[in-house]
Amino acid sequence: MELLSFKETKSLLLKYGLPFCETEIFNSLDKAIEYAEEIDYPLVLKVFGKDIFHRTENEGVVVGIKNKEDLKREWEKMDQRFKIKEGILVQETVNGRELILGMKRDEQFGPVLMFGLGGIFAELYKDVSLRLSPLDKKEAEKMIKETKAWEIIKGFRGEGVNKEKVIELLVRLSKLAEKERMIKSIDFNPVMGNKKEVLIVDFKVAI
Question: What pTM did the predictor assign?
Fold first, then answer.
């Protein structure tokens, strides 16, 4: 499998109305700095390339970029480590609860959708619910309620997450999976959710 380029991935997200945080890709530090000043600090840097499936494990993600000096220093380190590949993503920092949404295309059953707790919890708990596509709002809500993430969404020890926006994101992911049959897998981890918004922060789309 091969990952879609950032440009292809962004186009796909926009086409199906899948909300994502402010993100752009750069090969020029000067242009990255200009963009950083537009969206404001703190920021996140991520290396991006069609053959990079595991950024975090390979030191390809840096969070908490507080100013231009931080950005220059971490950019140069990442550039040396990866020789930039396709480019380096500059992203806004989004606060909220971490969720995971995904899809894998089964040869027999077609698109299988996944939902659960995201970030490190996805690997730690492996607490996810699965459904065959297509998915409607009623079934999407059932998916959410089958996982530990439901307690987080309701507001366990925190402000909670906008349930309707999570449901809408699942339904739109289902529509994408149904229409774009060349796509073999989709991994949105994490998706950051709070009371106001639910935004895809990290995305891998493979064909």
Answer: 0.91
